[in-house]
Amino acid sequence: MRMKSLTILVCAGLALAACSVSTPSPAPSQFNTTTSMADVMNRIIDPVAQRMLRRSGSIDTAEGTKTILPASDAEWQLAENEATILIESGNLLLIPSRIKKLDDKDTDWVKYTNLMVQLAQEERAAIIAKDGDKMFDIGAKIWDEACTGCHKKYVIPTLPRS
To answer: Are residues 52 and 123 in contact, defined by beta-carbon separation less than 8 angstroms?
Structure first.
């Protein structure tokens, strides 16, 4: 009889435990974001974007117009690597603790980041196709629309006024 009571008690306890609603405790951040946003921009995103963007177009010199497209397979590979790094850098900007918001309804940080990623994907496709004109045009869009748009909203207003 005692064993039967114990069995019923254990089953009842398990049933109650199964029915109870538990709120999971918040998970600790899975990202180490000790690198400042300034360092992410100055040490990762800006240098790779500038190197990538300097691989298209032409320069007028006293000797004539000189193309600055990659000249070897190794240089084309570097350009593709740079575009890939820029694409993946978008993930660094979308880590929840790094998303900037000027108010609760502000979603422009995500919009500009996703635009940067989309355009960098297009840039990589142009690089793979070795299409210098398209590289130049998309590079201009990355600079004008994604970078400058975001910096106008989130960086320039925070700069100290002299």
So the answer is: yes
Integer Cα distance of 81 and 37 in angstroms: 22
What count of other Cβ atoms lies within 10 Å of the Cβ of residue 33?
13
Please tell me the distance from the alpha carbon of residue 123 to that of residue 135, in angstroms, as a whole number: 6
Query: What is the residue type of 30?
Result: Q
Helix (H) or strand (E) holding 59: strand 58-61
| Owner of token pair 């117009």 | 65
**Residue-level pLDDT, tens digit, the chain, 162 residues:** 555 554 544 444 444 444 444 455 555 678 888 999 999 999 999 999 999 989 988 889 999 999 899 999 999 999 999 999 999 999 999 999 999 999 999 999 999 999 999 999 999 999 999 999 999 999 999 999 999 999 999 987 777 776
Based on C-alpha coordinates, what's the Rg of the chain?
26
Instruction: Answer yes or no: are the C-beta atoms of 65 and 59 closer than 8 Å.
Output: yes
* Residue spans of alpha helices (H) in the chain: 2-19, 37-40, 46-53, 73-93, 108-128, 132-141, 148-154
- Domain chopping of the chain, boundaries: 37-157
112-131: string of b/e by CB count within 10 Å (b at 16+)?
bbebbbbbbbbbbebbeeee
Give the integer Cα–Cα distance in Å for 29 and 79: 33
